[in-house]
Amino acid sequence: MEKTKTAISLFEITHRFAEQLVLSGITAFLEKDQITAILGKSGSGKSTLLHIINGLVQPDHGSIRIFEQPIDYRKMDSLRLQIGYVVQQVGLFPHMNVQQNISLLGKIRHQSTEAIHARVTQLLKMVQLPLPYLNKYPHELSGGEQQRVGICRAMFLNPPILLMDEPFGSLDYETKRHIYKNLLTIQKTEPRTIIIVTHDWDEAITLSDRFLWIEGAKIKDRGNKTDLEKLKKAIFS
What we know:
By secondary structure, the protein is of the alpha/beta class. The chain has two domains: 1-82 and 161-237, P-loop containing nucleotide triphosphate hydrolases (Rossmann fold, 3-Layer(aba) Sandwich); 92-158, no CATH class. It has helices at residues 46-53, 76-80, 98-102, 104-108, 113-126, 143-155, 173-189, 201-207, 225-236, and strands at 6-17, 20-31, 35-39, 61-66, 69-70, 83-87, 161-165, 193-198, 210-215, 218-224.
């Protein structure tokens, strides 16, 4: 049986904001083509860890490897091409329609009109949005539809890593349920390493293969989906 490769390696990551210790001695190996949930209360350092993985924040101490290569902070453009990023606020450009929002990186990289349209069409089908939505603007979309467009934009260049920072926190349960189904379907079609930051235990159980639980600036627990289900029962029963 082929050994699962590590996509992201974190070694003794420690970081402070002013005098506040946010992360302390974080060591973890996140597996390729699996969904890892990072759980913790607000202010536990979850989002900071995501920013460190994305190169937005350089840790005070420790090192990171992406596909066995150390992050080179002088060459962040090449790193960003490997990483898609989805946040709760989505951040669609209001003056651009759905096709323009999704394909922005394709335009920047001078892809052909045919290649861009083919990829946008493929992504819309994956998230179950009708093709006429290509011409809609963000204000014409529901919150769930905007989030699905944001996911398409993050995946346009087919990055091997997708980081998701509380992406579904503002959505109602029924909308979340549909997007969870979309995301898991996409993961089967285009497997990638997904790291999702959440404080929602049910969301983590639904989506993730593995989890990290951060508390007091440290990893308090980790494991697979079964371990997470047991941990939830132990904490909330």
